[in-house]
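Entry 12.
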Amino acid sequence: MTKKRFLSIILTVLMVLSIVHATPAHANQLETAPSVGVVQRSIPVYTNRGDTIAAYTLGPGESFTVINSVIDSLEAHYYYISYNTSTNKDGINGYIKERDLYTNAIVIYGSPATVKWNVSVYYGPNSQYQRCGTLYTGETVAVLEKSDTYSYVEYNDNVHGRRKRAYVDTNALTFTCNMPSKTLAIADINNGFKCYVGLKYTVYSGPSTQYEPVGSVSDMHIYWVKRYTENDKSKIDEPFYGMTYIKYQVTGTNTWKSGYIVFNYPEVRECVPNCQHW
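Predicted 3D structure (tokens):
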């Protein structure tokens, strides 16, 4: 075989590969993949790959669901995402560049998933928590944590037009990734440490004030929930923007809620003794 013939074959193979890469790169053979981005610095969102003018710019504190990763024919890497704006409660799909995801956002790894049937979502992964809405057939959600019974997901709240986090029956989801199951820390009412707060705090469903408010706490005991161990560093529960994940009993009921507050640590008092091991 001549050198010229060999080079021709190589070029042909490369052309075929570039066409194959132009299709979405599904992550169903991965254990986990980027599933949520929480913006630290502005990220432009494009209607189509290769656009030079952004259709929208995600600002600090906003978040988005990563639906898929895409490589186009020019070998440019994009992520196909779903996000909310103040004027579109149902959510919008678009493309962001890979470098923007990893340099301008906090990336949470999990799995995209599709909802199989209309299903209720809850503030926690058992019947002791209040119901907080519905996910509908065909919706795409980002799974942050998964157990055999419930999964902790983030999605577009099409009632209020904001992002929201809640718990849903794992069987109602079709996962893109082979995401491993684990024990959800918040499933145990006694998990976390108990302390008393006097000031009034707004509770949000996600780790920034851009998420849907779900209530407030004041003059009551709360549980500060630690979702991960030192050997299982998850970014899900990090106090982004000074926020901390809590659970609390709804006044006058036997039910519970969970969410994030901007925690004023010096104001906390009456912590139970078993918080010392934290």
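Annotation: The domain at 3-108 is CATH 2.30.30.40 (SH3 type barrels.). The chain has three domains: 3-108, 110-175, 186-277.
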